[in-house]
Design brief:
InterPro entries: ICL/PEPM (IPR039556), Pyrv/PenolPyrv_kinase-like_dom (IPR015813), Pyrv_kinase-like_dom_sf (IPR040442). It contains 13 helices and 8 strands. With 291 residues, it is α/β, with parallel strands linked by helices.
Length: 291
């Protein structure tokens, strides 16, 4: 079931900051930090699970399994990437039903042609706006609970211009999307214009370090009309950098001695994070006498 606390936070006009999670370690770490929402990044999930580009290679089955496990292993509401809905209108219906049944709280679908591409990379092409409107209407009708949120993304800005992206955002909001996501505006001025033009809807800002869009503070985003900011890449970029440092040390030194304490989460902490204390208590309770 969808977690009702996320819709309640939106209704209370609370600005949402959502870190990108891509596996169970990143999800468990973020889950214990008091965020109102987690964002299940498609790029990070595909990279960590399959080791390939976020270019429409992962399937519905791949994503619902991974994101469902995250949702079930965390108490924080999860919005998860679902690319284009994995096909036509029937696929969208089944994707919404599957994500909701898996315990995910929100689904992000976009208006790209298949195969889709990461929103901050070149070569994206958008389907006709009317086709996406139908997808949104199907998604809204397919959900069991209104606490399951529909995030509708347009990738029109890069290929078709800001005016068309705003037009689509308005259409998506009118079609019933709970959150409108205009992907990759290229300046703060463009973001201000999106907020001015679409301020009647909940707007999402996608903050990708090194991407097309400037990263503004939460206060500034709220001021210009946004309701939620996602940070899909910050986690896996940090993990890759940390691994490169410690693996480089291991290759150069031949052991892990001498690593700064800051480079290690700590074996005891990771055991606790993964639930070993519960395992030990269970084993103590049900211990069998030696024969």
């Amino acid at each position: 079931m969808a977690n009702p606390t996320l819709r309640a936070a939106f209704d209370a006009k609370k600005f949402i900051v959502a870190p990108g999670v891509f596996d169970m370690i990143s999800a468990k770490v973020a889950d214990g930090m008091g965020f109102d929402c987690l964002y299940g990044t498609g790029f990070g999930t595909v990279a960590s699970a399959l080791g390939v580009a976020d270019a429409g290679i992962a399937t519905y089955t791949d994503m619902v399994a991974r994101m469902g496990r995250v949702a079930q292993g965390c108490t924080t509401p999860l919005i998860a990437d679902a690319d284009t809905g994995y096909g036509g209108l029937l696929n969208v219906r089944e994707t919404v039903r599957g994500y909701e049944a898996a315990g995910i709280t929100g689904i992000q679908i976009e208006d790209q042609e298949v195969p889709k591409k990461c929103g901050h990379t070149p070569g994206r092409r958008a389907i006709p706006a009317d086709e996406m409107v139908l997808k949104i209407r199907v998604a809204v009708e397919a959900r069991r609970s209104r606490d399951f949120l529909i995030v509708a993304r347009t990738d029109a800005r890069t290929g078709l211009g800001l005016e068309e992206a705003i037009r689509r955002g308005r259409m998506f909001g009118e079609a019933g999307a709970d959150v409108v996501f205009v992907e990759s505006p290229e300046s703060e001025a463009e973001m201000v214009e999106i907020g001015r033009s679409l301020g009647q809807y909940r707007l999402l800002a996608n903050n990708v370090e090194g991407g097309r869009t400037p990263i503004l503070s939460a206060a500034r985003l709220a001021e210009i009309g946004y309701a939620i900011a996602i940070y899909p890449a910050v986690g896996f970029l940090a993990v890759a950098a940390a691994l490169e440092r410690v693996f480089g040390h291991l290759k150069a030194q031949g052991d892990s001695n001498g690593l700064p304490a800051a480079e290690s989460y700590g074996f005891g902490r990771i055991c606790e994070l993964m639930g070993f204390p519960d395992v030990w208590e269970f084993e103590k309770k049900w211990a069998q006498p030696e024969r």
